[in-house]
Design brief:
The protein is α/β, with parallel strands linked by helices and 278 residues long. It contains 12 helices and 11 strands. Bound molecules: S-adenosylmethionine.
Length: 278
């Protein structure tokens, strides 16, 4: 059995699903040791510093560190982002939120002022800057460390001159108005922490995940309330939501004066994005 197969078996024995385990081993070989996919496919026996590889594998298995943090890299909408434990690992379902904002922006000829609240790695703001060349983008986060990661990614992906970065608790340090407000906020009730994967519980930033109310909706309440002072008319609020939060969040949108509320499902048929016009 070669090193790749051995590694794969160790991850599977540690409870990682076989397809995911295979992706993770390939990612470690590609990103840390510079092998190409072809090298991995063709090589019967890969020659490299196996002690470094085994130490990463141990961190993955024993400390449950997500592979994205081990390789400092995660993909989002086909682009590679730097990630560390100061930021949430971008999730594929968040791409739906970005696509919805792009669809809305492309309907009008005018350039748009857009703010991403809780930017984390910067994945939403950066992809909007890349896909909407005329938009003026602001990226805000309460965590300065997260914002530094977002700045680094914007530089790496060639859009830092297009994005204004602000440390702010929602809109506290922001006076301007925007045409579109987008956010993937923390929405997991703290009491559900124990039900999450160990990888998420132990390694992703709590500030990015948890809110301290029963339904996980307190951030949306604050956001929708403050948004009404910061949206131009007509304007759009677009948010990602958690499992079965669509009803309470639709109610929050209605109470805050939003109209034409739409709920968009993800690939698994779960309500994932809510948009409303103001
Ligand atoms: C779920 S993560 C989203 C990160 C990134 N936008 C994404 O979609 O992958 C939520 C982000 O909101 C930030 N955050 C938490 N509370 C905040 C607040 N009161 N004001 C602004 N940002 C906040 C966190 O630091 C974290 O980066």
């Amino acid at each position: 059995m070669n090193l790749k197969q051995e590694a794969l078996q160790k991850l599977i024995n540690a409870g990682i699903e076989p397809n995911e385990a295979s992706i993770e081993v390939d990612l470690l070989l590609e990103k840390v040791f510079g092998f190409t996919k072809k090298d991995i496919l063709l090589a019967r026996e890969l020659n490299f510093d196996s002690s470094k590889f085994n130490s990463l594998l141990e961190k993955r298995i024993n400390e449950k560190i997500p592979v994205q943090y081990l390789i400092s890299s995660a993909y989002f909408m086909g682009e590679e982002f730097y990630v560390d434990e100061n930021v949430l690992i971008p999730r594929p379902e968040t791409e739906i939120l970005v696509e919805e904002v792009i669809r809305h922006s492309e309907r009008s000829e005018e350039s748009k002022k857009i703010i991403d609240i809780g930017t984390g790695s910067g994945c939403i703001a950066i992809m909007l800057a890349k896909k909407l060349p005329n938009a003026e983008i602001t990226a805000a986060d309460i965590s300065e460390k997260a914002l530094n990661v977002a700045k680094f990614n914007a530089e790496k992906l060639g859009v830092s001159h297009r994005i204004n970065f602000i440390v702010s608790d929602i809109f506290q340090n922001i006076d301007e108005k925007f045409d579109i407000i987008v956010s993937n906020p923390p929405y997991i009730p703290l009491k559900e922490k124990e039900n999450l994967q160990i990888e998420v519980q132990k390694h992703e930033p709590p500030l990015a995940l948890f809110v301290d109310d029963e339904q996980g909706i307190s951030f949306y309440e604050k956001l929708a309330h403050q948004t009404t002072q910061h949206l131009t008319k007509p304007g759009l609020l677009a948010v990602e939501i958690g499992f079965s939060q669509e009803k309470p969040i639709k109610d929050i949108f209605i109470r805050s004066g939003f109209k034409n509320i739409e709920i968009i499902k993800d690939m698994s048929g779960i309500e994932r994005v809510v948009t409303g016009k103001f």
